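To whoever picks this up:

The nightly regression suite flagged HAD family hydrolase as changed. Nothing in the input moved, so I suspect the structure step. Input below, exactly as stored in the fixture:
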Amino acid sequence: MQSKILFFDVDGTLLDTARGIPDIPQGALYQLKRIQEQGHKIFISSGRPKAMINQYLLNVGFDGYVLANGGYVEIDGQSIYEDRMDYKLCVKTVQMLEDLRCDYMLETADAVYIDPSYHELYDFFSQAGMKEMFQLDFDKDEVLKRTIKIEANVLNKDKAKIENYIQDKFGSVIHHDEHGSENAFEFFSPTISKAVGIQKVLDYYHVSRQQTYAFGDGLNDMEMIEYCEVGVAMGNAVEALKQKADLICCAIENQGLERILKILFPDEV
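Regenerated output under the current build:
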């Protein structure tokens, strides 16, 4: 079989703490290693920045990472692509969030910066075991010049105001989900997507989209599921993603990843 490149979302695909699966299931981990031994490449493709990829995942031995929704790409420990937000837009966005008294954190290629007085976000990620990822003492203006993504916790009363701001200033729709009781909004360059990050990987290896597989469960996986030659939605995926996927496997708690990898990449005879 010609060498392929596989891209995996993290939460809800490789693992899912909400479902009591904090690590990659052993069966799926075995399949990932077996596939690498066949000569294929495996990548994490996540909305997370590098600082949110814990040591356990780093130790798995992925060939690289497409992170921050495609805003940062790393292969074999080397950065090959970074798409920072426009500095003026960063400054304007942060000022708007501070005026609304919204907690926010700044995500760069190698770190996450937050004011510890922003208890909604700081406490949420601390309770999730991610406290160590935060840099608390920093020059905000200097960090804004390197920011790839801003994540903010927005009160429900301000949600419409934030969405209107985004339409006006960014000209693109902002992804949001739930972190506890309020809305977690992600602000990033409209030129960013997981599909863009994946293409940077393909350019690096000089291979075509026909050599790619994508595995995901959420709305921010839509671009890569549509972009890759074979898009696989988890059984626990949102319905919109399932409708776009080429294949649907079992849910993560039912060994979905292990089963589909066995089928797609059988042992070589």
